[in-house]
Structures are given as C-alpha cells and as structure tokens.
Amino acid sequence: MKFRRLTKEELQGLEGEFVQFLAANTITAQDWEKLKIEEVTKAEDLLNLFSDIVFEKIIKQVVYLEFRTPNDLKTFHCLEDKIILNGLHMEGQASHDLTSDLPAAELMESFKKADVQLKIYTAEKAYLPDREKEIFRMLETGALIAPQGQWFQTIEALKA
Q: What residue ranges do the domains of the chain occupy?
C-alpha cells in the first residue's frame, strides 16, 4: 500500500464510489460478498487499491494546508516541487485566537484592537520523500485542507 486503508467509517462515506470501483473491475455485489468470504486476501487487496486511489485523488488536488493552535497558525502552499510555509505566531490576549472560524480579515482586525503581537515566519523546502507522501503525512498528523488558501494569502500580504 502506498498510504493506508480507509477506515470502515471512511469506506461507508464512499460507498457509491466503491460500488463504481467494483463495477469498473467487473465485480458485482454478489461477487464482492463471495470474495469477502472465500478470497479474503483478494478482497483486502481490492480495499487497499481503492484506498490508495482515493487518497491519491485527494492529495493531487491539495494546494493549501493549515495547522492551527490557539497561538500559532502554519499555512502551506503545496506546489509541485516544493512546499512553502507562511506562519503566524500570536503573543498576547485577544477575544479570539488563531483557531477561530472568523474570516482572516475580521480576525486580523480584532487583533489590531487587542494587545496582541503577531510574528510572521516563512520557509520553504523540497518534499521528502515525495509530494504525495509528505502531504499524506501532514494530513494524518492534523493538517487540514484549506481550499482557498485564505490565510496563506493573508500572511503573504502581511509580509510585503
């Protein structure tokens, strides 16, 4: 396996896609039930293959990721050959912290009104060992996909 097997809950959420996957491999519902009992290894191999396909499809679409704690926000721009980090560290007390769901502009405005110091940091590096595995590792350790990259762009603008 390239990644990991989907959990039972994840598979349940992808039931329609799994049925299509089985159909594309000319496996009917009846054949699948029989495989699970009579050819367990083959059934497990199919689950592993489906899991890898799902994760690969998700990872290929990732452009931005975020890790958030109350005082630290790490945003990542996932390019083809490297990953760029824009981070924001908050010191002081504010009515909201960096885990808030407020839009970036509103949260930044609330920080201006509070006794808060913001420190910006940035870095970039090549993927280790490769893009797919690094992004998968980050997702497995708590990174969230940030579809619009709003915070990455906000921090980028603050750097200028």
A: 8-61, 64-159
Question: Terminus-to-terminus CA distance in the chain, angstroms?
Answer: 43
Measured CA to CA in angstroms, residue 19 lies from 7, 31, 52, 150 at distances of: 16, 12, 16, 35
Closest CA to 55 of 14, 12, 25: 14
Split at pLDDT 50, 70, 90, the class of 140 is very high
Q: How many CB atoms lie within 10 A of CB 113?
A: 9
Give the per-residue SS3 of 63-99. Answer: CEEEEEECCEEEEEEECCCEEEEEEEEEEEECCCCCC
Give pLDDT tens digits for 1-28: 999 999 999 999 999 999 999 999 999 9
pLDDT by residue (tens digit) across 54-83? 999 999 999 999 999 999 999 999 999 999
